[in-house]
Amino acid sequence: MGFLRRLLGSKDPPWLKRIPGALQISATLSEGRFRVEVVGESRYQEALEAIAGGRTEEGADLETVALLVPEPTNRYDPNAVQVMIDGKVVGYLSRENAEVLQPRILEMVRRTRRAVACRARVVGGWNRGRGDRGHFGVRLYVDPADFDLEADELDGRWEEPEAHTGRKRGTGGRETGSGPGFLDGRHFTGYVDEVRRLRREGRDGEAESLLLRLVDAVEAEAAAEGWGVASWYYEQLAIIYRKRKDFDAEVRILERFARQRHAPGASPAKLLERLEKARALRDPR
């Protein structure tokens, strides 16, 4: 944490004070579904065991928050980014991701005078006796757009978005049928891989057309069932429009999201904040 203190030009910023059991920090939180791995956890198993509350037969599956701490004084890699949970070092970003993210994290800290954090999950670490012990691991979840990046600029993958349907899915996570929530015989959640493939291949125009139809399906199901919309489909359109610098279109899709009822876990605050940024880009003073 010494580097953050030097970066912020203060000996002891108030938000760096420790309290029992936790490190309380004012931080900018990235809450996306793009999963990146942590490396070097094998060196921090004792810390991870303490964070997880010990070992169990089933192992850990703990949702938490991790700090991303730039470490430019690291003698092995000046681009290093340390991962901390509950004030303990638990690993590092991979060299590839650290090289891309460290300068963006530094800029965010300088601009906001806040640390940078993201969703994290501590998994594994089971103990079933007779030597059957698993290692703890850490998964991080970010939104590349929070760092002004596209997903293909990071080493990782999108996790399946929450469907918010309460239905049991068929093989491969795809349902077939008709009615609200379905597009050409498939439930909207069954198109995630297709959207990713189109974007990965640079076919953003086709992805946009498909996503607009999927948003219609999302809203139709939400209206029929009386629940909130899933944000992933709106978010993907917003990313496409930002990349294209079509700020008017980005504002329109985010305003459309803002008018909907929001499902739990849909991170409405993040998209509403993005809406304000898009409006500022569209209407610069």
TrEMBL record:
- One Pfam family from the record: HIRAN
> Which part of the chain is the HIRAN domain?
32-115
The UniProt keyword set, sorted, is:
Hydrolase, Metal-binding
Asked whether the keyword Metal-binding is assigned, the reply is yes
Q: Cross-referenced InterPro entries, in alphabetical order?
A: HIRAN
Give the Basic and acidic residues compositional bias ranges. 156-165
Alphabetically, the GO molecular function entries are: hydrolase activity, acting on acid anhydrides, in phosphorus-containing anhydrides; nucleic acid binding; zinc ion binding
Keyword field contains Membrane: no
Query: What are the boundaries of the region Disordered?
Result: 156-180
Q: What is this protein called?
A: HIRAN domain-containing protein
Q: Which organism is it from?
A: Thermoleophilum album
